[in-house]
Amino acid sequence: MRKIVRAVALVSIFATLIVLSVASQAQVNHAAHRPEGMWVNPNTVPPFALVYDEEGREIISPDHPRRIIGYFVSWRHGKDGQPAFLVPDIPWSKITHINYAFAHIENNRISVGPDSPDNPSIGMEWPDVPGCEMDPEFPYKGHFNLLNKYKKLYPHVKTLISVGGWAETGGYFDLEGNRVANGGFYEMTKTIEGINTFADSCVEFLRKYGFDGIDIDYEYPTSMSKAGNPEDFWISDQLRGTLWRQYELLMKTLREKLDEASVQDNKYYLLTVAAPSSGYLLRGMEAHQVSKYLDYVNIMSYDMHGTWNKFVGHNAPLFDTGQDTELKHWNAYSAFDNIGYLNTDWAYHYFRGSMPPGRINIGVPFYTRGWQNVSGGTHGLWGEAPLPPGMPHPPGTGDHVGSTIPPGYGAQGIDNIWHDVDKEGKEIFAGVNPMWHAKNLEHGILGSYLPIYGIDPADGEANQLIGTYQRYYDAVAVAPWLWNETKKVFLSIEDEQSIAEKAQYVIDRGIGGIMCWEFAGDYAYYPERGEYFIGDTLITTMYEKFKNASPYNAKLANKPMPTQSIDIVPSIGGFAIGDNNFPITPKLRFTNNTSQTIPGGTKFEFTMATSTSSRINDQSGAGLTVVSSDHTGNNIGGLKGDFHYLTFTLPSWKSIAPGDYYELTINYYLPASMPSNFQVTIDGQKYAFKCEYPDGGADGTTPTPTPTPTPTPGTSPTPTPTPTPTPTPGTSPTPTPTPTPTPTPGSGYPAWDPNTVYVRGDRVTHKGKVWEAQWWTVGEEPGTTGEWGVWREVQGGGPTPTPTPTPTPTPTPTPTPTPTPVISPTPSPTPTPTPSPTPTPTPGSGVQPWQAGVSYKVGDQVTYQGIVYQCRQAHTALVGWEPPNVPALWLPL
Q1: Contact between residue 303 and residue 347 where contact means Cβ atoms under 8 Å apart
Q2: CA gap 762, 749 in Å, rounded
Q3: Is 696 inside any structural domain?
Q4: Which of 43, 221, 300, 869 lies in disulfide reach of 822, CB 3.0 to 4.6 Å?
Q5: pLDDT of 324-340, one tens digit each?
Q6: Kind of pairing, strands 587-592 and 625-629?
Q7: Which residues are within 8 A (CB) of 523 and not within 5 positions of it... i.e. 6 or more apart?
């Protein structure tokens, strides 16, 4: 397993180039190397050119055009008798970044515990392990010494210290293994004093231990109730109304202090986060406005399904398939225009809305999740496995969080060797295993390591190798699984096929790279042992796919942006808290920081992520319009593009004086990150926003035409919001696209249509008046529902205060998983069957039309609606898998 490194030369050509580059930094315009979309620090320009090229791409090494990031965990040190994974075991030549897990927060300072021989980070030694000899250059020992020792041999690899994680976000473990519930991030971020103390300690920590950056794993600063580690609910729930605001302050402070230290040390320090992929969690994280402070984001695009509920599905699907039973249970497909919102592709597009592809890394798990006693589904997939009646619900699930959905019956024993334990020391059933153990199960191998994990066949069937673990593959979701028909056990896995396809997805979309949790779960086969064990097969698969790939896409926009810029600053806020945040109705503000007045009639344009549907409008009478969308319809096989393109025009009577702002309330339905690619048109000249594109030629001032005098509109008295009845639980409307009715002249709002579904905040005109829906409705005529009814008259039709959102039935439950990074649901192999026309062959092509029920192999060609497609994955076609719907299966020619 261990690969002993024998370095022939300590300084490579690449290292020499780095030295030469550093020597010439005085002549470099560092601001020109700033990655697109990153915050412009008004106080200092950090030495971007030390790690970024002229295009704002991270400089790594010639054979690493994309990132391969792995988490190295402190607790696999081997001193406890379990298999060790030490610094020499890292596949150094094939990776680009190491995230060390974890540091914690103690007395508002970053810490890895006391300097002790038992501390694996800074005190432990392995004198009998080849390659683990301590480097005397460093005053500390442990993993930190070895990381810096090996960085000398592999100077292209950067190391980051990860702070928090599932178990140490709200506390930490002492050297005896006892958890100290000190509040962690939750307590530290209460005050600016705590934040400053923490940020200063991070700078000191990086300097002391030689790390290249900080990775914040705060799980989670969301306003959603009962989110994160159940052991932290005592503090997280009481603070959830302020968590995001304080998190923004934390990240801004960290960025400022790291920038200052970078200038002082002539060493650029990275700031990254591990971000959730769960639409449920992201709904409580506003528009993830902190992305601008980050060098990149690592998406924890796993734990889409798990035993926190009974729904059986993939751990880390790449795409939605339209068949996710958890989403179906909550009517999520019908409520959200058939967008399945919990898969890697959806999460990527959420962040793509505000970041270039190259500043995003998708995540993959090197561990399984699984259930036992599964019923229904296809070989277990999309079946159910509720915990048997009478068994206690694990913390954070079922009756502990007020959920009507029972927790899942997790796989146990031989199907759960990487399990956690409860407070009584009993196994928590969750089907968690390293991938090397899953490979042994797949091949019917009884691993020699099982006694180390307490697996004794004499203890009963749960610890015995019974039945066959058959591998199946979901070609649309890009997700394999194991199914044991005898035991009714389902284990979601990753292997070379799924990792290779995910790597190709990263290449094709210009994404920055892949992050994995964690190195020690990867596998290799050892013939001399006759079994699989810890290796680097999956990391090698990524490396081989990436090494000859093109550079990642460093551009924020997909279309040319104006060459001149203007100092208008967009911001977003006013989000409702928790479940009240549906529909999502924040206020988008534009602040004029120029010395000139922005005149009425100015056209504003911006983009939003396709993670939400194209149903986007405003509640302010601004006439916000979706001009075009890169994606419409369902997302089976992936979202087809990145952005919705929106525009509105400043009313002719409304100008924005220097220092003043214009604000509108926007309305959308699925989480989307901060809008981006802002531009305005003044007097026929287009300008980008300086905060996104600081190198434009406007310098914060623009020739501003004199506004044409226009009549002042009539007074619009502000009505008093009426009490809003609470909607009946369980109503989850299915929006039906309808023709847009003709608006009442001058109102900017469409006429009421009895066949259209309206939700809270929608406005219509009817009989010469403007009305606003207070909750979901269809067919109820405005003016007939009474004072306390669904429709409230908006006097004058102008902007009105938005009432405090009332709790709305949401398609996402509130369970929180047992110690894992993320909660979420997942996709499936069979989309909802819908009749589709039988296509006619393209005349003269000789290619047969696509047909449901036909088995296709790689390279087969078909026609569909006049277009020729080539098969990318062998499969048997089903109704709903028409070529345009599943780009994972068909490539248009």
Answers
A1: no
A2: 9
A3: yes
A4: 300
A5: 999 999 999 999 999 99
A6: unpaired
A7: 434, 435, 436, 439, 532, 533, 534, 535, 537, 538
Domain that holds residue 56: 1-276+360-365+494-525+535-555
Decide if 13 is inside a domain: yes
What's the CATH code of the domain at 14? 3.20.20.80
Query: And the tokens for 308?
Result: 């926190």
Residues 563 and 632 in one domain: yes
The one-letter amino acid at 450: L
Q: Is 753 exposed, middle or buried (0-12, 13-18, 19+ CB in 10 A)?
A: middle
| Interval 280-317: pLDDT, tens | 999 999 999 999 999 999 999 999 999 999 999 999 99
Q: Are 374 and 488 in contact (CB under 8 A)?
A: yes
CB 608 within 8 A of CB 343: no
The per-residue b/e assignment along 35-50, b for 16 or more CB within 10 angstroms, e otherwise, is: bbbbbebeeebbbbbb
Same domain, 519 and 579: no
Decide the pairing of beta strands 587-592 and 661-667: antiparallel
Does one domain contain both 38 and 54?
Answer: yes
779 and 807 in a common domain: yes
Among 779, 813, 832, the domain boundary falls at 832
Query: Per the domain annotation, does 382 fall within a domain?
Result: no
Q: Pick from 793, 814, 832: which residue ends a domain?
A: 832
Strand order in 791-794's β-sheet?
763-766, 769-773, 791-794
DSSP state string for 121-133: TTT---TTSTT-P
Assigned token pair, 731:
């109503």
472 falls within a domain = no
Within 563-684, where are the H helices?
none
In total, how many domains does the chain have?
3
Q: Between residues 759 and 201, which one has the greater pLDDT? A: 201
* Phi, psi torsion values for 210, nearest 5 degrees: 75, 20
For residue range 130-182, list pLDDT tens digits in order: 999 999 999 999 999 999 999 999 999 999 999 999 999 999 998 888 999 99
Residues 547 and 651 grouped into a single domain: no
Characterize the bridge pairing of strands 67-73 and 513-517: parallel
DSSP letters along 332-393, please?
HHHHTTT---SSHHHHHHHHHTTS-GGGEEEEEESB-EEESS-BSSBTTBT-B-BPPTTSPP
- Indicate whether 688 and 540 sit together in one domain: no
- Cα separation, 342 vs 125, in Å, equals 43
Same domain, 681 and 748: yes
**496-508 and 537-546 helices, crossing angle to 10°:** 30
Answer whether 316's CB lies under 8 Å from 494's CB: yes
Note whether 794 and 719 are within 8 A (CB): yes
Could you give the CA distance from residue 183 to residue 829 in angstroms, rounded to a whole number?
42
